[in-house]
Amino acid sequence: MAGVLKSGIKNIIFDLGDVIIPIDLRGPIRNFAVLSGLSEDEVESLWREHGLTLQYETGLIDDAGFRQHVRQLLKNDTWADEVIDTAWNTVLLDLPIERVQRIQELHGQYRLFLLSNTSAIHIAKVNKIFAELGQPVLEDLFERVYYSYEVKLAKPSPEIYQYVLNTSGLKAEETLFLDDNPHNIRAAAELGIQAVQVQPPLTILDYLRDESTNEDVPHSS
Q1: Is the model's pTM score more than 0.85?
Q2: I need a labelling partner for 9 at 20 to 30 A (CA). Which of 46, 60, 62, 139 fits?
Q3: What is the rounded CA–CA span in Å between residue 158 and residue 144?
Q4: Is the pLDDT at 221 greater than 50, yes or no?
């Protein structure tokens, strides 16, 4: 696997889930199924029918609104906020500290950014995980963070990539974007961003190898 830190790259935009911190997308479904007594399929169907994740991650509803929607959908108005937050955050797995350390090594060599489809509850938990492990919170790790719920746009919408480029003064051809989702990669590449899909079992440690060992690689599309 050749690295992707090629000549001409000045900026790196990172996705969060499964790029920096591993995630289990079905974790919340499993946990809400246990809490509600419904099957995982029933919970997943309700989630999709009402578009709850997208509403929350694009800022159409806030934390309190999200929790209330969960109580209504799963027919339990007695759940405390902490119960819902804990189940929602089971999407987050253990943080490989070496990934954070590699990002820190890139400071001063590149302008570093984060672009994530996420929610405020998740970000609060991620920052708590980072702090407990003695690592800088996301807002300190990157020059600027872009959260979908704050900008009210979500990947793979072209508008969110253009927003990042415009507000941070980035040139697409000088910008590397690392994401695990092929749809997100394709959308970024169509704008001229040097988009590369992070595909397990490889991690950003494989893609962001020292430049002296890199070979040129084709862009994902």
Answers
A1: yes
A2: 139
A3: 19
A4: no
